[in-house]
Design a protein that fits this description.
With 309 residues, this protein is mainly alpha-helical. Helix content is 51%, strand content 7%. The protein has helices at residues 20-45, 106-204, 208-214, 220-232, 271-283, and strands at 246-253, 259-266, 298-304. The radius of gyration is 81 Å and the shape is rod-shaped. The model is unreliable at 1-6 and 200-217 (pLDDT under 50).
């Protein structure tokens, strides 16, 4: 670089420098180198250290190299302060994007909806039918219970009627037996009295006319009247019987027609029929008299079962 001095008598002027472009180029190169070193430093910090191997050589036998020429001293411009390295932005994790639902075919959706509606309708119908069936079962059970109660009530009424009829029958039989016994006692008492009276009369003496009066004189109409009255009082329901059984009894009576005694002289072979005839004879007292008002003291009467009214 050369410097020009001012001319004599003139003002001093700063000479123009001819190395302006070289200075600009040097400054640009320095900035580029600075940026390169910054980039290398940042990259070096972000990478793992690499092992470096070096070989050591014995330099004692090597001659010293001639000193290099001293370059001209150039005052470097002040280096600009490095800009602070901006912090890396925080990593933002994007939420997972859900895949859109697959497109639904309208016909398939309609079919599914119809199938669902049909299934729901069938379920409702099934529940309705189930309720109707349960109600029918309850109604049938109620009717069955009512029918059972009516049957039990009817059976109880029938049993009560049967018990009542049985009791009434027993009471009637008992009353009839008591009445028959009372009549029999009465007849026996009357017979004893008549016998005492007859015996007294016989002791006093009798005439042939009296003996003749007491002699048996059978009158078919008189016997028929007595037999008819006794038959009307026979109560027998033994049913069909082979043949025509006949029972005969000897009846002793007073002059008034009152029966004194009844004695069976021939059995029909059916005890129930014999008892029925004997009871009818006792019930027929007093017996009918003859047209003249007299009676036979003893009379034998026979009764055929087939001749009953």
């Amino acid at each position: 670089m050369t410097m020009k001095h001012a001319t004599a008598g003139g003002p001093y002027r700063v000479p123009k420098r001819d190395d302006r472009w070289s200075s600009i180029g040097l400054a640009a190169a320095m900035h580029a180198g600075l940026l390169f070193f910054l980039w290398v430093g940042v990259a070096w910090q972000n990478t793992e250290p690499v092992a470096v191997e070096a070989e050591v050589w014995d330099m004692t036998t090597q001659t010293a190299a001639p000193p290099a020429p001293t370059p001209p001293q150039v005052k470097p411009e002040p280096e600009p302060e490095p800009e602070p390295t901006p912090a890396p932005p925080p990593k933002v994790v994007a939420p997972p994007v859900e895949a859109p639902p697959p497109a639904v075919d309208p016909d398939i959706a309609l079919q599914k909806r119809k199938a669902k509606e049909k299934a729901e309708k069938e379920r409702v119908e099934e529940e309705k039918a189930k309720k109707i069936l349960e109600q029918k079962k309850l109604e049938d059970q109620r009717k069955l219970d009512e029918k059972k109660k009516l049957e039990e009530k009817r059976e109880a009424e029938e049993k009560a009627k049967e018990d009542k009829a049985r009791e009434e029958k027993k009471a009637a039989e008992k009353a009839a037996k008591a009445k028959a016994e009372a009549e029999q006692k009465k007849l026996e008492k009357q017979r004893a009295a008549d016998m005492a009276r007859i015996m007294g009369t016989a002791g006093a003496g009798t005439t042939g006319t009296a003996a003749k009066a007491t002699a048996p004189r059978l009158d078919s109409g008189y016997v028929a009247a007595i037999t008819a009255k006794i038959k009307s009082n026979i109560a027998y329901g033994g049913g069909d019987t082979a043949g025509n059984p006949r029972a005969e009894f000897k009846i002793e009576q007073l002059p008034t027609g009152e029966i004194i005694s009844v004695r069976k002289i021939k059995s029909s072979g059916i005890p129930a029929y014999d008892l029925a005839v004997e009871a009818a004879i006792a019930k027929s007292s007093p017996l009918p008299k003859k047209k003249d008002g007299s009676v036979e003291r003893e009379i034998t009467a026979g009764f055929n079962m087939k001749d009953l009214p």
